[in-house]
């Protein structure tokens, strides 16, 4: 399964993260379309079709990187690194959404959020983020933005 | 140079940090206007430095000085005709070859040039080494390394500008174009020098080169000259397109000789920009990633702004109630509470989502991503018969359609440009966002962000389908080829993103104090009079007006209040919300002194017709400012009326289908 020796860890990472994101994406899609079960509740799967498509997209990006790396195209590692970046970006987006709900519930005491608990906003897009976080920490030198200049005014 | 006054023009390719250098050089002393006769922005500024008053003009960013775009014509005409003392050419140090092409053309113009080698830190970080001393020697032009974002090299640049300005007029540098072309250039120069006025005004070698390249603008400059016929005789003996191609090749040959001697390049490992582009501009992943990012932006816009909107909403509701109840006489209290706070205040409630959306768009733009968005959409745009360049004004339409329509001036083909202008109002501007936020928030709960995103996508789809329709019927023709440069990715800074957010968002605040205030007072007047009727009731003038309009919107599930709000929304789309705030008399009823609660409590408004209302607001006729700019830019009453009529018909049909089909399927 892993033929690229130079980027064998990145390939392995893509092989784990890709299918995982895709599987959770399809489960979330099924829930979004009406499927419901105890185990989907236990996995905090929300009824969120667009979110499910984003999970599938992230998984596909990881797997495309694996495909290119295994074909000997080293530039395919871009898909693994950028996939990690995008997956973490979505973790940040979801955490910001969660923090807005927390603000409504705990500070503004909004009626709509009377029974809100953080688990209400938990979703695979957040907890699957542990994988890209590990990837980010492992290859953090690749994510150095020092090489990019800062935007001017 | 007169006395101690120096005139400096800043030239350069797009995205080389020219504006950042201009800002660093001039600080707050800036003036923004338009170039004469066109709506291309002209920035000027000044700086006092070491006893000199230096006047700066920021020329439009161009890759060359041909006459293929209005920007190029403006830049070169300014240099040729205004003859600035010094031209500071900002060169991207990470892309010398492409940038030096413009240098060769500036040299031909005879301008006294100073090169600001910008982004030199970026070039050094990736391993490039540029020998500026050698570069100065080969080009005979002073070179100053700058990092504009950090203010590095700015003082040295100013010192060099002053030193060069003191040297006085400059002779043009020459690039050899080979024996055959040089012979024609000599012939042409001899002819042009026969017209003393002409040869005093324009460098004769430059004008000869441009004429031989088949430059129409150059030909216009010699219209009326006694040597015109002789020039035309020479031009009739050559293949101008071939000459233009050969001369461009010769310039690149000169650059190819210079660059290896002055710069040693980094090894060709993939840069961070390359890696990101490999994924973000991928033929399969590019478009889904674009939509995913846009969805994230709208999801964040809605969810993150709700707590702040709730705070403002409660504050304005309290203020409106307090004014309406306590200010005497009653009518004045009602004007302040129901009219002004109810109208303007409840428009201001939507400041958080507007500013958050503009902040996120600024981050995407500053990072360099939006340029990629235009690139990845090019294939799709070409398929529907639009120019790839059209997507940039369309994206700008998310902010405001007026500058977006003005930005279509960069599109050369008339039909491409007209199509882009006519579809631009379907790109949902910030003024329409409050309507979506109000109704999506009231009726779609946790899915509100997704609903708002869908409305924006629907706008894009409507624009695309309309473009396809126009290009295959009224505005037939093949789209012109599209070439664009992808700037390197940059890390967005908080300062830049905040400034860009403020530049767009402050327009909304200004409107609140002017047109929306007037609109709110007008609607309050209609809702209050004739004296003695219940405020905002069907017996008021607003009610009577609404009742006249109601039959037109009843098939869409809208009542008379919405009809009045939509009518006044023609002035400015924010007034739709302001009008609803006034018509629901928010100051009068303490129990429902909140616009979201009021619309939720109204049994005549529910999820299905609120969705129809959002779609109607998206598609129906553009606001008055947009209509005005459509008239101005198309120069045609016919197209302006077409934009209004087409928008209304499309909006009505879409809202009708949503309401009738949805009702038929049992939704409410």
Low-confidence stretches of chain B: 587-591
Query: Helix content range of the residues of chain B, please?
Result: 55-70%
Strand content of chain A: under 5%
Mean pLDDT of chain A equals 91
Task: Describe the global form of chain A.
Answer: globular
Tell me about the biggest sheet of chain B? Answer: 7 strands, mixed
Distance between the termini of chain A: 48 Å
Strand residue content of chain B: 5-15%
Distance between the termini of chain B: 73 Å
* Mean of all residue-level pLDDT scores of chain B: 85
Rounded Rg of chain A: 18 Å
Going by helix content, strand content and strand pairing, the class of chain B is alpha/beta
- The percentage helix of chain A is 55-70%
- The number of helical elements of chain B comes to 31
Radius of gyration of chain B, Cα only, in angstroms? Answer: 29 Å
Count of helical stretches of chain A: 6
Task: Provide structural commentary.
The complex is a heterodimer of chains A (153) and B (668). With 153 residues, chain A is mainly alpha-helical. Chain A has a domain of 98 residues. Helices cover 63% and strands 0% of the residues of chain A. In chain A, α1 runs antiparallel to α3, α3 runs antiparallel to α4 and α4 packs across α6. The radius of gyration of chain A is 18 Å and the shape is globular. The N and C termini of chain A lie far apart (48 Å). In chain B, the strands form two sheets. A seven-stranded mixed sheet of chain B has the order 2-3-4-1-5-6-8, sandwiched between helices. In chain B, strands 7-9 form a two-stranded antiparallel ribbon. Chain B folds into three domains: 161 residues, Rossmann fold, CATH 3.40.50.300; 86 residues, Helix Hairpins; 377 residues, no CATH class. The longest helix of chain B is centred in the middle third of the chain and has 41 residues. In chain B, α15 runs antiparallel to α27. With 668 residues, chain B is α/β, with parallel strands linked by helices. The chains are: A mainly alpha (153), B alpha/beta (668). Chains A and B meet through α3 and α4 of A and α1, α4, α13, α14 and α23 of B.
């Amino acid at each position: 399964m892993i033929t690229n020796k130079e980027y064998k860890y990145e390939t392995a990472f893509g092989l784990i993260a890709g299918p995982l994101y895709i599987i959770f994406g399809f489960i979330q899609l099924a829930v979004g379309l009406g499927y419901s079960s105890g185990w989907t509740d236990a996995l905090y799967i929300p009824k969120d079709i667009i979110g499910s498509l984003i999970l599938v997209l992230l998984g596909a990006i990881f797997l495309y990187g694996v495909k290119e790396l295994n074909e000997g195209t080293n530039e395919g590692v871009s898909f693994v690194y950028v996939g990690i970046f995008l997956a973490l970006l979505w973790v940040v987006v979801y955490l910001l959404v969660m923090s807005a709900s927390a603000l409504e519930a705990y500070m503004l005491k909004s009626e709509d959020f009377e029974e809100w608990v953080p688990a209400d906003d938990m979703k695979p897009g957040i907890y699957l983020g542990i994988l890209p976080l590990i990837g980010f920490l492992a290859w953090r030198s690749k994510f150095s933005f020092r090489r990019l200049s800062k935007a001017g005014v | 140079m007169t006395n101690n006054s120096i005139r400096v023009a800043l030239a350069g390719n797009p995205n080389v940090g020219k504006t950042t250098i201009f800002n660093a050089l001039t600080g707050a002393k800036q003036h923004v206007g338009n170039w004469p006769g066109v709506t291309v922005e002209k920035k000027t500024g000044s700086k006092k430095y070491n006893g000199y008053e230096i006047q700066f003009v920021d020329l439009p960013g161009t890759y060359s000085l041909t006459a293929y775009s209005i920007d190029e014509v403006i830049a070169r005409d300014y240099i040729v005709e205004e003859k600035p003392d010094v031209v500071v050419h900002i060169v991207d140090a990470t892309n010398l070859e492409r940038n030096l092409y413009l240098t060769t053309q500036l040299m031909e113009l005879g301008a006294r040039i100073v090169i600001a080698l910008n982004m030199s830190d970026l070039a050094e970080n990736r391993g490039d080494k540029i020998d500026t001393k050698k570069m100065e020697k080969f080009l005979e032009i002073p070179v100053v390394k700058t990092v504009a974002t950090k203010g590095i090299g700015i003082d040295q640049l100013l010192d060099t500008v002053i030193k060069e300005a003191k040297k006085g007029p400059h002779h043009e540098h020459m690039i050899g174009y080979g024996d055959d072309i040089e012979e024609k250039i000599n012939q042409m120069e001899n002819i042009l020098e026969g017209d003393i006025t002409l040869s005093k005004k324009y460098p004769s070698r430059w004008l000869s080169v441009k004429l031989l390249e088949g430059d129409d603008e150059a030909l216009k400059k010699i219209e009326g000259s006694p040597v015109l016929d002789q020039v035309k005789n020479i031009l009739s003996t050559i293949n101008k397109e071939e000459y233009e191609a050969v001369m461009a090749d010769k310039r690149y040959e000169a650059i190819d000789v210079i660059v290896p001697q002055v710069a040693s390049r980094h090894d060709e490992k993939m840069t961070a920009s390359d890696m990101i582009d490999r994924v973000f501009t991928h033929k399969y992943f590019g478009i889904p990633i674009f939509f995913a990012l846009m969805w994230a932006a709208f999801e964040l816009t809605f969810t993150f702004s709700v707590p702040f909107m709730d705070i403002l909403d409660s504050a304005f509701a309290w203020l409106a109630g307090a004014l309406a109840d306590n200010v005497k006489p009653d009518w004045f209290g009602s004007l302040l509470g129901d009219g002004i706070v109810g109208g303007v205040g409840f428009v201001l409630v939507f400041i958080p989502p507007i500013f958050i959306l503009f902040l996120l768009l600024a981050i995407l733009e500053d990072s360099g991503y939006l340029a990629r968005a235009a690139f990845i959409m090019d294939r799709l745009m070409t398929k529907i018969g639009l120019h790839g360049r059209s997507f940039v004004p369309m994206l700008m339409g998310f902010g405001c359609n007026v500058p977006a329509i003005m930005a279509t001036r960069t599109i050369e083909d008339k039909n491409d440009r007209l199509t882009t202008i006519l579809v631009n109002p379907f790109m949902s501007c910030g003024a329409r966002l409050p309507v979506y936020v109000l109704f999506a928030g009231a009726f779609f709960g946790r899915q509100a962000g997704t609903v708002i995103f869908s409305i924006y996508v629907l706008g894009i789809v409507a624009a695309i389908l309309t473009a396809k329709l126009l290009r295959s019927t009224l505005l037939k023709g093949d789209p012109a080829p599209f070439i664009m440069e992808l700037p390197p990715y940059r890390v967005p800074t908080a300062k830049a993103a905040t400034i860009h957010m403020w530049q767009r968002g402050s327009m909304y605040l200004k409107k609140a104090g002017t047109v929306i205030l007037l609109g709110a007072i007008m609607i309050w007047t209609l809702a209050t009079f004739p004296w003695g009727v219940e405020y905002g009731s069907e017996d008021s003038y607003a009610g009577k007006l609404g009742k006249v309009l109601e039959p037109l919107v009843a098939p869409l599930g809208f009542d008379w209040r919405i009809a009045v709000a939509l009518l006044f929304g023609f002035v400015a789309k924010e007034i739709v919300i302001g009008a609803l705030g006034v018509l629901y008399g928010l100051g009068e009823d303490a129990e429902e002194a909140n616009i979201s609660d009021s619309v939720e409590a109204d049994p005549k408004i529910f999820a299905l017709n609120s969705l129809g209302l959002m779609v109607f607001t998206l598609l129906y006729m553009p606001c008055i400012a947009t209509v005005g700019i459509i008239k101005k830019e198309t120069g045609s009453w016919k197209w302006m009326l077409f934009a209004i009529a087409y928008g209304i018909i499309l909006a009505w049909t879409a809202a009708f289908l949503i309401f009738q089909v949805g009702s038929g399927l049992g939704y409410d």
